[in-house]
Specification:
The complex is a heterotrimer of chains A (437), B (336) and C (302). Chain B is mainly alpha-helical and 336 residues long. Helices cover 75% and strands 0% of the residues of chain B.
Amino acid sequence: MRTIRAAAAATLAISIAAGVTGCGGGTSSSGGSNDSPKTLTYWASNQGPSIEADKKILTPELKKFEEQTGIKVKLEVVPWADLLNRILAATTSGQGPDVLNIGNTWSASLQATGALLPWDKANFDAIGGRDRFVDSAVASAGAEGKDPSAVPLYSLAYALYYNKKSFAEAGIAGPPATWDELVEDGKKLSKNGKWGLGAEGSNLSINIHQTFVLAQQHGADFFDAAGKPTFTSDGAVAAVKQYIDLMAKDKIIAPGNAEYAQNQSLTDFAKGKTAMVLWQAAASTFASQGMKPEDWGAAPVPVASGTPGQGKNINSMVAGINMAVFKNTKNIDGAKKFVKFMTSDAEQKLLNKTYGSIPPVKTAQADAAFSAPDLAVLRDTLAKSAAPLPQVPNESQFETAVGTAVKELWADAAAGRPVTTESVKARLEKAQQTMQQ
Amino acid sequence: MTATVTTDSRTEKSDRVTSRGTGGARRRLPRIPDRIRQGGLPYLLLLPAVLLELLIHVIPMIIGIVMSFRRLTQFFIGNWGAAPWTGLDNYKIAVDFNAPIGEALLHSFFVTCVFTFFAVGLAWLFGVTAAIMLQENFRGRGFLRAIFLVPYALPVYAAVITWAFMFQRDNGLVNHVLHDQLGLTDQPSFWLIGDNSIYALIVVSVWKGWPFAFLIVMAGLQNIPRELYEASAIDGAGIWQQIRKITLPSLRPVNQVLVLVLFLWTFNDFNTPYVLFGKAAPSSADLISIHIYQSSFVTWNFGTGSAMSVLLLLFLLVVTAVYLLITSRGRKGADA
Amino acid sequence: MPSHAQPAALSRAAGSRSRSRSPMAAPQSFLWTRRIILAFLTAFVLLPVYVMISSSLKPLQDVSGKFHWIPSGLTVKPYLDIWDTVPLARYFVNSLLVAGSATVLSVIIAVFSAYAVSRYKFRGKRVFTVTVLSTQMFPGILFLLPLFLIFVNIGNSTGIALYGSRGGLILTYLTFSLPFSIWMLIGYFDSIPRDLDEAALVDGCGPLGALFRVVVPAAVPGIVAVAVYAFMTAWGEVLFASVMTNDTTRTLAVGLQGYATQNDVYWNQVMAASLVVSVPIVGGFLLLQRYLVAGLTAGAVK
């Protein structure tokens, strides 16, 4: 008993100390050191068809980097399912990689933790200057008015993918440019067990991406300038309703899509069950589903005016992967060198080509490979008519709250329950109330 | 009836062991080292378990409780020490049932209670029934026994993702059978979203959980003395009577522990709903574990998430205490 | 003392134990009930297994199509592809190492603790049993992050790398199964007549000698059940493994998620991989179930 008591007392003391002092978190204001200049740890996100494929793609490049600089990069490809939690644990404990990929929608949240190296002018200059990158991509790397928390690495945008054969059969000449046209075409396509458009109703992120863009088109934002949620503005409600109405009123989305969350809409598309789908860079998935490149086409996502642009003519969020450096790295110079290497023209061309994404580096975009018809759509969208999701620290909360609200509305629509402006507003109202801080 | 016998004989025996053990040793060994040996040994035997439980459970738990009194959001997770103390604010948010967060938590709590009741009840029922049916030897018994343990051997992720696959509205096996083949529904139902999702969750949970009940009851059946059956057979009792009069009462102590642990696991189960529904479970199947995960890991508000966990823990402690009190008293009452 | 009476209960003091209920022939009503119930349970258990097998044999484009009882266009390609999509073999070895070590340690520690509680009277016994049970209630989400933090701090101050290592995961998992294992073994040990270990003590065995020569052999079914439980607890855990492992130490439970990537979900490969990794486990069960059931009669009970 004495032993137990002694042990208990000792451990209690340790634990209280740990609780109070916070167990040495990840923030050191110094901004890294150069204590171990010969190695780097890099967490890559899963961009290719599989984790093993990513390793095969990246390893030769890391070898090149080692030859150039003598720095050995230890690579770990982290699956998306684990990445955010791993980053969270790393941030909390200060025990993480030197360099890592982050989804660009996480930028502001991670920026708020103070664990990532801010990319001020000096840091940007060390990798060739901020001007090298497409503006919208840099804007998706952190809150406005603050130094970005990461550097754009791979960029993506939404496009409208359509099945050429289905379109020809229905006597439709080309892809729709406005939502009215899309609904009209969709109605022509939705018959005999086939449907006009596919959606991923239970995928919270995609719900957010689409409603965000539609809200922009209605002149609404989900957050005001001060970062306060404004989910229930008329524009936001109308945007969400317009999206759900594609199933509820226009009946061009199959009810079953309400439960999709594992890219089943792409499978349906590849099988010819649906004729259109809104997606980011779906080419490789179509190929793996057995679809030939000539079977499908890509077009800009519709806007009311028919001509994508800024303001109400935004037709995509800026999707992409950014590269960040942990502030407490022991090889700060090496980390910057590595970011410079990965954002160099040569690597940008090679990696983005392999992954089917668009380089956020202007000079690399000029490469002919990114002028293929489908990629040109993505490239032009990024350059002209894409806007970053709200860069607020509680972005993930927003994604969960509004994404779930939209998911529930899909479920309503699929079950045949009426979706009205009031019911949409009520869901969004509830979502807004769960937002704290 | 049998339980009393055991409990009593056990106490009596353990007394005897202690006294006789000491006495027996005293004959051979000097008294003082012997006392040290007797006194220290049990603690020494418990030491590894105690240390590990402290390290992995108790201390992290205490830190978790400390977290629940702080405002631990993404602004502070990099440096916990700087997170401001908020007193009971996190708890107030969690139990303010008129505000959406509290309301959602309460809803989720009720959903979890309903889910746990059915999931545990069915898992237990299946486990006990199967174990009793396999008590007697017959051809194919070993084979069935192994088959029944299959759900237990499959990795959780694989098993649940397969069920999710089967529950798909348009292409899944469940609707293929219910709608296409049996024609029980007018149109295919949704199982993974909307109101039906709680049924899907219960089915998967039972499928995954009942083999454990089966395993434990099967082990428990081994300990029923054969004489009891022989005696009752001589008295002319049939097999149904034997099950009712001997098997089930004898399983009571096993059941008492089994139901309790099944309850605790099911109530805290995270893997099943997470793999089945992802980060946002449908409202009708919004289990509290997912809810807390969402509040802490998805929205990075560990203060509130911890407060919710602590409330959950308190609830489980109370339920367990009451359960043990009632079942033990019930046992004594029945025995008397 | 209600809480203390429980462990006692798991089994019965017994002079002799039975493998089967009675030599008497069972009536038809019972036989039919048994057939129906067992058929139902077998179907319930095997239905997903059938779906897994048939899906694992389809090409990717066919997997997510409409379900049919009789699959067509079968291929074994998924079984060849699984090894290249994720490092399945490594995950499998990791899982075996982690679950295996956690099981062995958990059983040994539980045997010691249960023996102490079952055979000795000492102060703090009730506190111990109640505390151990209550750790079973701790929601994992509450202590995941603090535990990670503790592991990192131990690593920083002592150099013992527990985070990201198999060691850390083994320690974590063994404590997950420990509480219930201890409780269950207390019950088993209580049911073993004390005369036996007393005899061993008189014969000059130390208390540990009595434990390992008499009590443990007599409690084999209980120990096997506990071991199976401990193994499966570690085998299937997802939440902690997702945060506490890295590429080299990742276990199957989380590693299987690697078949679902951002744009593609390789349904056929998930199913194929799950089946491949489960075969050895089911095989292990088949071997063990004999001990589970028969072990006791072979013990030194008589």
